[in-house]
Amino acid sequence: MTKLPVLFLIAIISLSGCTNKNEDNFQSQPIQAAVSPTTSQPTNTPIQTPEQTPLPMPLPSQNQTASSSSADSNSIVYTNKQYGFQFSLPDSWRDYTIHKTNWQGYVPDENSANDKTETGPIISIRDPRWTQQTPRQDIPIMVLTKAQWTSIQQEKLFIGAAPIGPSLLGQNEKYVFVLPARYNFSFPPGYEEVDKILQNYPLKAFN
User: Fold this and answer.
1) 119: part of which helix (H) or strand (E)?
2) Would 191 disulfide with which of 4, 136, 137, 159, CB 3.0-4.6 Å?
3) Measured distance CA(70)–CA(63) in Å, rounded
């Protein structure tokens, strides 16, 4: 009877020891989650910008076109069929008048008594604002033959006392049209306007 209680105690002690070992084996171990931080790397991709295309040139406005057309339509033309030339004038000269005179030149000789003279027409276009009280600058056009023009260039024919010869305006097969030297030497009213007219090459010769 004494052995039974002793065996019972030994069995209880053995069971308690096994229980402690199992509890030790089943203790949860701490889990370390290795989280590696991810950092975004900067990219070297260039930023594309829209291409800059040149703007188209602006077209002329209707006002500009209209003004050019009106300027052309307002210009007037004097036509001389006898000698074969046309002369363009601004609208302010619409009521111009024509005045004809003659130029005279000379061909010198060793003996001055034998000097020869040459002559030809001058066709002057007169500003309609010209008056006896206030004369304005004319546009004088000298008409020469081809032979006379050649003599002037060769310094064989001299017209007037000016040290320079006339200026060429135009020519056709028969005639040469020139502007007298120092035609505006007295600077009358309107000489600046005439100078501007002449700068636009207004004379057109025809055959």
Assistant:
1) strand 116-126
2) 137
3) 10
